[in-house]
Amino acid sequence: MPMKKYSFTDVNRGAGDILDEAMSAPVTLTKRGREKIVMLPVDLYNELIKARSGAQSFVYADASQNILDDLDRGLDDILNSDEHV
């Protein structure tokens, strides 16, 4: 089954429903028709990370403020960029 896609506008109108869906299956967020973000359940994310050798992951609640600041800047860059894929 293909991953469902939602625009950023869809998220603004119905974030709760989209987030609920993302807790059970991956969803793609698009901006101006281009795929920008994939949201997926944490269990699936952890499986993907385990499959990658040498990969490192963090639990949001345990991340340092520096990591959270870097994440915030990175997400802002993605959301505000037309060229970033």
Tell me the distance between the termini.
23 Å
Tell me what portion of residues adopts beta-strand conformation. 15-25%
Spell out the helices and strands N to C. EHEEHH
Helical amount among residues, as a percent range? 40-55%
Q: Count structural domains.
A: 1
Q: Calculate Rg over CA atoms.
A: 14 Å
Average predicted confidence as pLDDT? 85
Task: Give a written overview of the molecule.
Helix 1 (8-22) links the parallel strand 1 and strand 2 (27-31). The longest helix has 16 residues, at 65-80. The chain is globular, with a radius of gyration of 14 Å. It has one domain (4-80): YefM-like fold, CATH 3.40.1620. The chain has a three-stranded mixed beta sheet with strand order 1-2-3, with helices on one face. The protein is α+β, with helices and mostly antiparallel strands and 85 residues long. The chain has helices spanning 8-22, 42-51, 65-80, and strands spanning 4-7, 27-31, 34-39. 48% of the residues lie in helices and 18% in strands.
Essential attributes:
3 helices, 3 strands, alpha+beta, three-stranded mixed β-sheet, YefM-like fold, about 80 residues
Outline the fold blueprint.
Layout: E1 4-7, H1 8-22, E2 27-31, E3 34-39, H2 42-51, H3 65-80
Parallel strand pairs: 1-2
Antiparallel strand pairs: 2-3
In short:
The protein is of the alpha+beta class and 85 residues long. Helices cover 48% and strands 18% of the residues.
